[in-house]
Write a structure and sequence with these properties.
The protein is mainly alpha-helical. It has helices at residues 17-33, 45-48, 56-73, 90-98, 104-108, 111-119, 128-131, 133-143, 156-173, 216-224, 245-253, 256-262, 269-278, 283-309, 312-341, 349-360, and strands at residues 4-9, 38-43, 81-84, 148-150, 181-183. The longest helix is centred in the last third of the chain and has 30 residues, at 312-341.
Length: 362
């Protein structure tokens, strides 16, 4: 069996460090590993419209922002297929068939759906499209016969539901679909990077993001405003690491060689943590280290983005080619699904002949 990846993002704004450590950085590593036969990366505009139906221009404008971020972090269109969800209509048809294989109560029990509904204040008025987006995700994954889906831990319930839908489809109609495996970040700090305000998740709507395209000035401003330890009032006070944003970010980005370059008084992050917890180390020193590390990480990303921004039509050509390739793959799966469900009426010569013979002899 071929090894295939499907992953993607909603185009509701520029991508941020949460996306980067949670999936983007790993995607580039997987793309360049040579271990996978195919990698599909989807800009999930149809999914984004489930809670932005009254503001399609927001989605329309952010398609290019996400595409630029993909290319700037190192996604290579020669190695990965970047496509736009709505331009592959086969996905919607697959989702319609899968809706018959999952109950309303099963979707309601999905913890990710519960969290998203609460976050968007949809408790009393849930759009059907939004409610069904876990089924749509199953369609996206199975359309490309993805064997691996690299996501953050918050998406694990979605992959589990996809596996259930695949198992039920194959049980009813015969072995047709592929069950995917989830691939979580290997660095525990990357599982869910908090916002700069200490909130559980980096979110555009909360304004607590550090964007991949932020300037040096913007990056510095956001790090300096980060939530730390509210009890660490004086440098001499013992500090606490739990919930302390700069240290969580350092867990995700810091390497030993950074200390030799930016903070030679320490050999590694553990020494820095030990000093902070016993007292005598200020938050400003920690934040300055983090700014230097993030600046080193983001500078080449910014520079690549600026290059791609100079030729936007070329970026759209990349997306157009990707959509054509993605649609070809999805159409093949849809044909197999129709055949398995026995709704490929015009291609079923045996059915037509049997019915013709039956009615002739009636």
């Amino acid at each position: 069996m071929k090894k295939i990846i499907l992953t993607g993002d909603r185009p509701t704004g520029r991508l941020h460090l949460g996306h980067y450590v949670g999936s983007l950085r790993r995607r580039v590593e997987l793309q360049n590993s040579g271990e996978f036969d195919k990698i599909f990366i989807m800009i999930a505009d149809a999914q984004a419209l489930t809670d932005n139906a009254d503001n399609p221009e927001k989605i329309r404008q952010n398609i290019i922002e996400v595409a630029l971020d993909y290319l700037s972090v190192g996604i290579d269109p020669a190695k990965s297929t970047i496509f736009i969800q709505s331009q592959v209509p086969e996905l919607a048809e697959l989702a319609f068939y899968y809706m018959n294989l999952v109950t309303v109560s099963r979707v309601q029990r999905n913890p990710t759906v519960k969290t998203e509904i609460k976050m968007r204040n949809f408790e009393a008025n849930i759009p059907v499209g939004f409610f069904c987006y876990p089924v749509s995700q199953a369609s996206d994954i199975t359309a490309f016969k993805a064997t691996t889906v690299p996501v953050g831990e918050d998406q694990a319930p979605m992959i589990e539901l996809t596996r259930e839908i695949v198992a039920r489809f194959n049980h009813i109609y015969g072995e047709t679909l592929v069950e995917p495996e989830i691939l979580l970040p290997t660095n525990a700090a990357c599982l869910r990077l908090p916002g700069t305000d200490g909130k559980a998740k980096m979110s555009k709507s909360l304004g607590n993001c550090i964007y991949l395209s932020d300037s040096t000035k913007e990056l510095s401003k956001r790090v300096k405003s980060m939530y730390t330890d509210p009890l660490h009032l004086n440098i001499s006070d013992p500090g606490h690491l739990e919930g302390n944003c700069p240290f969580i970010y350092l867990d995700a980005f810091c390497r030993d060689e950074h200390f030799e370059k930016y903070l030679p008084d320490y050999k590694n992050l553990q020494e820095l943590k030990d000093h902070y917890t016993r007292g005598g180390l200020g938050d400003g020193t920690v934040k300055k280290l983090l700014i230097n590390i993030l600046e080193e990480e983001l500078t080449p990303i910014r520079e690549r983005r600026k290059q791609y921004e100079q030729d936007i039509p070329a970026v759209y050509d990349i997306l157009k080619r990707g959509c054509a390739e993605a649609r070809e793959a999805a159409a093949q799966t849809l044909a197999e699904v129709r055949r398995a469900m026995r709704i490929d009426y015009f291609d079923d010569a045996a059915l037509i002949e049997e019915q013709a013979r039956r009615f002739r002899n009636a």
